[in-house]
Predict the structure of Basement membrane-specific heparan sulfate proteoglycan core protein.
Amino acid sequence: MRCVPFLLALIAYSGLWPITAQDYEEDISLAGYHQDDEPEITLMPGDPGPLEVNLGGQVYSRCTVSNSHEYSVKWIRRLPDHSTQEVSSTAMLYIPEARAEEMQHPLYCQATRLSDGQTFEKALNIRMVGYGGASLPADLTLTIRSLPAEDLSTGRIMRQCLFEGNEEVNEQFDFRWLDQNGRVVTNGDALYLMLEDPADLGNYTCEATHRSSNNIYQAKYHVTRPSHAQASQYVVTVVPDAASQVLLGRPYEMLCRVEPMPSEPVTYRWYHNDRMVGSDARLRLPSLAYPDIGSYVCRAEWTPAYSRSGKMSPPPGSVLVTLPGETRELHCEFGQLSSPSVQWFFEGQPLERHPTLNASRRVYRMDRLRVSIVTLSGVEVGHGGTYECRINGQIKQTHVIVRVEDGLEVNPSEDTVDEGTPVEFHCRAHGADQNVNREMQWFYQPFSGGPIQPVDLNPETGFVRQDHPYASHTSFISRLRARKSDEGIYICRLPSEGSEARGRLYVRSTVQYRVVITPPVLKVRVNNPIEFECYVVEDTGRQADVLPNFSVLDSRVRFDQERVAANRVRFLIRSGLTSEYNGTQVRCAVEGTDRYATSIIVIEDTCPHGFRRCRSGDCLPAGRFCDGRRDCPDGSDEDPRLCNECEPTVKKCEYYQNRPPLKSTYMIHWKCDGEDDCGNGFDEANCPDPSIAQCGDYMFTCPNSQRRIPRSFVCDKDQDCEYGEDERNCVGPTIESIADYRHSVRAGTQVTLTCRVTGNPLPRVIWRFNWGCLPENDNRYRITNVAQNCDSPMPSVISTLTISNVRPGDDGIYNCEGLAGSMRAMSNDYFVMIEY
């Protein structure tokens, strides 16, 4: 193995740990607070605690507050910076996978009193108990690689053990190295040896132990000492490609040569700043930039392996371009030599005796154990030329070029780009004798005139400024995609010198935009959260690098706007609106163009769950609509037009076995309950319902009298069993929605919504779209229900709504509704947004 440097210059866990709230508690004093006012908060499970949770397992708890109708409840996570993160917007906490990095922060149930906004919290005491789920890739391979500083010819071994290409996985492991006797050589992923004793030769093992699962991975490395005869047989050199020039923004290539070429296959590794940057004999830098500055090491490996290295590292490198007044260092580095003979030459003459350099009295030499340094303090024009470092017959060169220029310059002075393509300006101060790029100021003025304004340097909306320490006289501003509104004059100023330079940018309009709001109509209940998303695409369908903005015609409406992506924003009214704002129009537009889109907010003052509204405004149970009897004061419950409107909890009775129904409708939870509600058996056909069949019969047997009653009679607030067993142990349904309630889905793809409904009796589950029914006779909508915990006092149903081939019109609000006897529950809103 050989390694040589090349320098490039540029012009100018398994245990238990408790999680509690004490570390992040704050002392909060609220005006008007009284201890007697504090509600009782109960966490089930979680009281008295601790709640044991497996790492990778599920976290579940329900928060109950006394006088719950007076409070809104949610779950939060309190972070170390004292900010909070909402985990669940309901009283139900459900985390499908407990991650260590998240579970180290305490979880709180937070109750907010509706009357005065005061908040009360209770911490969930969690104790992690080991590893509950494998999250490691199945194809993990532990590898050993050499480090740039390794030099086998001198007996210096430097190897690193890691899972290549996966930094996140490496952070989950503890590494150590063992020798051939099983003794720990070092704790960590790096092995460092100086081969001074033959006993150090042999096999070394790297062990990586996963902190949570205790899984152990191993890799072995055999250490041998090559002979000096073999080491001196080969020479590894790095040479620049003959056609390459050291110019910013241009390609640059280097070649790693082994002479003579070994008969065995040779592998190459290139290193820059201790990071591997290439694996071929030829290293190509596609566009030279300032971060590319520094030393490049090529390591060639074959069998047997050996190396030799020498380093000449004047920052920035083998061709050094500098300005008068700057200070530069030329480094000549060498391995551990017994008696190194280091000589410096300038333009072929010994450095110490060169008349020009000695006359300047600005050139200094310093020799240390492994490096010799020549410092040019306050560069002068006469310092330009070729410098050589000669070590025991080896020669290392660097060429110093001194450029003498004055003033401020913006490049390019004029540029024309197409809309959507990159643009960059840089401002350079020639002849400055200090670091001035941070003093530079950038301004912008439209071609149409007007005031000169500072350039927008917000990376999300404008340009990015880059002032690199290696280019201390130059300031850069750039933008990935130019916009027509960027057209104008860009002005660079250096206040300390009172100088100014200008560059002009012209942007050709080649892009037409299309603005889309999703959903186009949003139906919400009073004071429920309101969300829209708006994005911009080019006519070609490509995402535009333009951020739109929302506006509302009604000045009374206050909203928040969040950036989702470079071309997408979100409209939010978290507390919703009252019915007086029904019909509010929302507009989304691209500034400086005539492109916009609008949407309408429809606010419906709905009745409670399981009720429908008469035209008179009264709310009646949905089952009393269209049953042949006039129940609304105005009789509208029997109006055919209202009867034809879809209501998710009500189903139509249809012809069955050539017999007409005696009633027009039946309630959804009456289906397959053992009682003929339609009069022709239609509602009892095709039974049992699969979700109920898993939990036993669809009839209920009274324990004492053995009387069988329809399951829909259970917990309906009417005693049907002789001793009232059908009204015992009733628990209203609770809905556990997943944390991700917002779904952005591309047209033509699929979206899946899931909720878990728990209660007693086993709940029935329906889905709503914009508070109404799902589209009828559309097989793109598929609902599956799976019953769980049938033998427990709290059985549950996991319901999944899958929408295939999503298309415009499917975007809007979806809800999961649970029905258990006479009790109802509605999920939070699921927002489905469409992308194109």
Observations:
- The longest helix spans residues 355-360.
- Confidence is low (pLDDT under 50) at residues 4-36, 130-134, 227-232, 305-317.
- The longest strand covers residues 499-508.
- The chain has six helices and 65 strands.
